[in-house]
Amino acid sequence: MNSLFDLNKIVIIKKNGTKEKFDSEKIIIATQKSANRIAKEWTNEEKNEIVRYVIQKIEESQETEFHIETIHSIVEYALEKVNPKVANQYRSYRNWKQKGLKLFDEMEQAENTIRYIGDRSNANKDAKLVATKRSLLYGEYSTKRYEQFFLNEEEKQATKDGFFYINDKDSRLDTWNCCLFDMANVLRGGFQMGNMWYNEPNSLDTAFDVMGDIILSTAAQQYGGFTVPEVDTVLLPYANKSYNNFYSEKYNEIYESEMETIEYLKEHHAFYLPENKIKLEQLLAYAKEKAETKAKEYAFKKTQRECEQGMQGIEYKLNTVGSSRGDYPFTTFTLGLSEGKLGKMITKTILNVRKEGQGKKGFKKPVLFPKLVFLYDEEKHGAGKEYEDVFDGAISCSSKTMYPDYLSLTGEGYVPEMYKKFKRVVSPMGCRAFLSPWYEKGGIYQSDPEDKPIFTGRFNLGVVTLHLPMILMKSMKEKKDFYEVLDYYMELIRKFHKRTIDYIGNLRAGGNPMCFCEGGMLGGNLRPDEKIASLLKSCTISFGITALNELQMLYNGKSIREDGKFALEVMEHINNLVDRYKKEDGILYAIYGTPAETLAGKQIEQFRTKYGVVEGVSSKEFVTNSFHDAVWETITPIQKQDDEKRFWNLSNGGKIQYCKYPIQYNLGAIKTLVRRAMKIGFYEGVNLSLSYCNHCGHEELNMTICSHCGSKNITMIDRMNGYLGFTRVGTIDGDFDFDSDPEKTSRFNKSKVAELGMRVSM
């Protein structure tokens, strides 16, 4: 049979009944689209193989006309021979089109809900804004697309049932998670952003301004927390520039004035009078000393003022300009280690600006971003140490705004170990994520005693969160060993993570040029068209855990406060598994205490759907976050610290410890509890229910009705998980009956409003 002749006679009947000649090139184009979904590009050999298998089937049929559906089936056969993964994507796309009408209906419902009712899945998103609504709508579409095209059948079933949860599905096809942005490296020498070249700043106020521009541009290109680590150290060179400029300006002004006086005296010989006994050298020395003293005072005050204005500007930018994701940039600054008079000034000024709040006179409130994290070094900030006053400033700020949180660098555990051994800070990314060490020479493992870890300039690729009570219940219902079932889901997540890394590696550097072209990330000096695969080796990717309290309750009817031994055993098992995965795969897997927000309620819904209401497990509207004691436990901050210490070093990829400090602005008590947490080695959050009256400006803790004017128009700020959010939003012109429908005036979702109402220990 002459294939060339016969192929020219082959006709394809389209769905609309029209006919066209067979074209093998169209098959390659169509299958490449499916291959793109798993970041696969056909080789010439693979293209020829696909066409050969298709032609083989056509020849075997001895037909000359084929309906398009028949050709699709033949192409699937060819893809199964060449690359089964692409065959699955090709098949999924066909199914996707068949399901299109149903999905269109679902999207229309989601659109109407978002547009007219609102969305509170993320407390950092104001769903009333048009831009946020658009972002949420795109997120709905992107989530559906991700579920259909990226997930295999096992993963779809596991996530549908609720045995694990893929965090941030709406963003995973486009970008990556949280990072420690190397701001100092980007600023140094200048950089290109958009269509503009930015010169390196020559003053502190310009550095603040440029830093704000970078954050607004760059944080929008990822979906997690954006941290500027050790921001006071980053800003110190520019504070020195401003100080030196102000010093020179004032010194020259004063010295010239003094010299004019000396010249006058010389001209009139006044300093030669016997009764004055003044020599010219003494006058010159006096003039110089006076100029230096006055110039130093002037330069310091002016630099401090620049710092105040710069931080105020950052706060305005980050709390008023929404990103393309529809939220305000989830930014964190870590600070506290910068030394010297100017270094101390930067830290204290940033804290003072936050403490003073923003707003019109008499109605100022603290902003939410950037989140502040104080880096506590016992040798610097301990009792009687040189920088204890900086720590005192932080405590004073926390008493009024809850921030900063505090990260121990000299206690016990992983983060302090890195600092004490290498003087390298592991700053949190966003609210609680931490990077595993990546060594300069050895990579995942230290090559020699001199090999040091790198943290700044690295990022995380995402989290998949286990629903441990669901997994335990499945093992109980099916009479299987719990660890056998757990290991099955761990392996599923492991394979998913590996596929995610392969996929993300094929994204181009131009997707986030500040990170990957201008040096914001480690090795990030690629061309915009280059793939970022080479930069992913130093990234972490995480196994998340939630509901350890409910896991323990399901196991033996006791909370982790009452027992916790089984929960600890499970965490140790997960850690051992992840250590093995890390060695076998050469990937920096991490274990993350997931700060469940929407997930806290979703996991309850999934558990009830499959297993019903189980007292103490699914009987409330939310699950307990990560390894925390249940919020309704009547315990002291010290008891909560001691309980959660047991789990602290089993979640090194992401964790925070926080307590409710029922102490009414008691600085001494706050300081004592924070120092205790620092000795343990915690990343500690101070929880106070901040309340502000929008009628008279009065502020008070835990206030729902103003004790001064009786208004219910109150704005309240509470801790969501690792970050702060508005739990009650009032306006100066209105008045609200919060108690009748608390959800209408809260940025928290339904499950979090329920949790808020039960909080005792958080």
Question: Would you mind describing this structure in some detail?
Answer:
It contains 25 helices and 22 strands. The chain is of the alpha/beta class. Among the domains are: 3-95; 100-149; 156-177 and 447-631, Anaerobic Ribonucleotide-triphosphate Reductase Large Chain (Alpha-Beta Barrel); 690-758, no CATH class. The strands form 5 sheets. Strands 4, 5, 8, 9, 10, 11, 14, 15, 16, 17 and 18 form an 11-stranded mixed beta sheet that branches. Helix 12 crosses helix 13, helix 13 packs parallel to helix 15 (388-401) and helix 17 (468-477) packs across helix 18 (482-504). The chain is globular and about 120 Å long. The N and C termini lie far apart (79 Å). The model is unreliable at 1-5 (pLDDT under 50).
How is the secondary structure organized here?
Blueprint: H1 3-9, E1 11-13, E2 19-21, H2 24-36, H3 44-61, E3 65-67, H4 68-82, H5 84-98, H6 100-117, H7 130-149, H8 153-161, E4 164-166, E5 179-180, H9 183-187, E6 191-193, E7 196-198, H10 204-219, E8 226-228, H11 231-268, H12 280-320, E9 331-335, H13 340-356, E10 371-376, H14 378-381, H15 388-401, E11 405-408, H16 414-422, E12 438-439, E13 453-454, E14 458-467, H17 468-477, H18 482-504, H19 513-516, E15 540-546, H20 548-556, H21 565-585, E16 588-593, H22 598-611, H23 637-645, E17 657-660, H24 667-680, E18 683-687, E19 690-693, E20 699-701, E21 714-719, E22 724-728, H25 750-758
Parallel strand pairs: 1-3, 5-8, 8-9, 9-10, 10-11, 14-15, 15-16, 17-18
Antiparallel strand pairs: 1-2, 4-14, 5-14, 6-7, 11-18, 12-13, 19-20, 19-21, 21-22
Helix pairs in contact: 2-5, 3-4, 4-5, 6-7, 10-11, 10-12, 11-12, 11-13, 12-13, 13-15, 17-18, 17-20, 18-21
